[in-house]
Specification:
The protein has helices at residues 3-13, 17-37, 41-50, 66-74, 79-87, 99-119, 130-138, 148-158, 162-175, 177-181. The chain is mainly alpha-helical. It starts with a helix and ends in a 5-residue tail after the last helix.
Length: 186
């Protein structure tokens, strides 16, 4: 599957702007981490984009991400991508053993959080600093649905410095700001 194929599939299954934005944000963060680790950017970007493929249609814990992973298997998507997607859901019980799986878990919640921070800033991603994100992370009322525990667990599993991790996600979203923030729902 190419990234263009993945994007067509994702936009077919995902109609809301917010979930489209999240998928694109996670894809951008995964691409940045592929660059950092010297991994295949397209594979990592596809994994980030498709991690919540089925969430809009099948949001229950019984169905997400299992329905999407079955569809990806039917389409011949590699096992490493499917396993990483299963592993991003703690309740799936799928261990995150590969670097790909660890990176996906580490960037998922943080990408959503950084996006939320951008929406309350007049310059969106422009000039965003790590300290701004850290300050908002301490405010439990801000983006309350984002699991701070998952963010910390992801950082620990990936074995990266927290400030560097936040900086990489900020950089990824700054690089692709127009694409991530200008997405629309259909």
């Amino acid at each position: 599957m190419t990234y263009a194929d993945a994007e067509t599939l994702f936009f077919d299954w995902t109609r809301t702007a917010s979930l489209r934005r999240h998928g694109l944000a996670v894809a951008a963060s995964m691409a940045r981490y592929a660059e950092h680790f010297g991994e295949d950017e397209e594979t990592w970007r596809i994994t980030g984009l498709l991690h919540d493929l089925d969430y809009e249609r099948h949001p229950s814990l019984d169905e997400h991400p299992y329905v999407g992973v079955r569809e990806l298997e039917r389409l011949g998507v590699s096992e490493d991508i499917r396993t990483a997607i299963l592993g991003h859901a703690l309740y799936s019980g799928t261990p995150r053993e590969s670097l790909l799986a660890k990176a996906l878990f580490a960037v998922d919640e943080l990408s959503g959080f950084v996006t939320a921070v951008a929406f309350v800033r007049p310059t969106r991603m422009g000039g965003m600093k790590v300290k701004s994100v850290r300050k908002k992370l301490k405010d439990k009322a801000f983006a309350a649905a984002v699991s701070r525990a998952d963010i910390q667990q992801g950082i620990a599993e990936l074995g990266v410095d927290e400030s560097e991790h936040i900086a990489r996600v900020i950089e990824a979203l700054q690089r692709e700001e127009a694409r991530v923030f200008e997405v629309d729902g259909t």
